Amino acid sequence: MKFVVFILLAAIVVSLGTGLYYLRREDADSPKMLRALEIRVGLSLVLILFLVASYFMGWIVPSTQ
Question: CB burial class (10 A; 0-12, 13-18, 19+) of residue 60?
Answer without folding.
Answer: middle
